[in-house]
Hints:
Elements lengths: L3 H11 L7 H25 L18 H18 L9 H29 L4 H34 L1
Helix pairs in contact: 2-3, 2-4, 2-5, 3-4, 4-5
Amino acid sequence: MATFVDKVNSGLVKAGLKPVTRDNVLFYYTPLKGCAAYGILSVQMFNPELFENFSFLVIPRYISLTNACLVNTISGTGLYLYSSKHLAQANPKEKLLFCAFGTVMFNLGSMLLWALGRTVAPENQVLRTMIGAASAAGAVYLGRNYVTYLDTHIRSSKD
């Protein structure tokens, strides 16, 4: 008889996702959650009025949406970089340092660009929401392609 975990994993695989394992939770699902939080963060930065009366389900009220999303994006980005192939040969100190640097530069750099972009964006909530979401999607797409390029380049030069 199949266990609950087997049924969940079977359903995830049928949906095109990875089964639940320690590595998949850390290096697949946490980055996915980070991507979702990154998208919410971008929209919130461009259009904070949308989230003024937002009530959290599991996050205490004294934690802002910005901080909650930032924690999720930092953890997702950091774990994604940590699992990348181009850092596999780095010693643990360097690997952690490179991941921290990449994570901070990507996330805080994005927030700076969004804050600057908000100052020049038109006062239209729909347009600001679309700009925020599109900029997050573009940054994630470009960042993922960059890491994939590095991973591919490292593997081909080591072969």
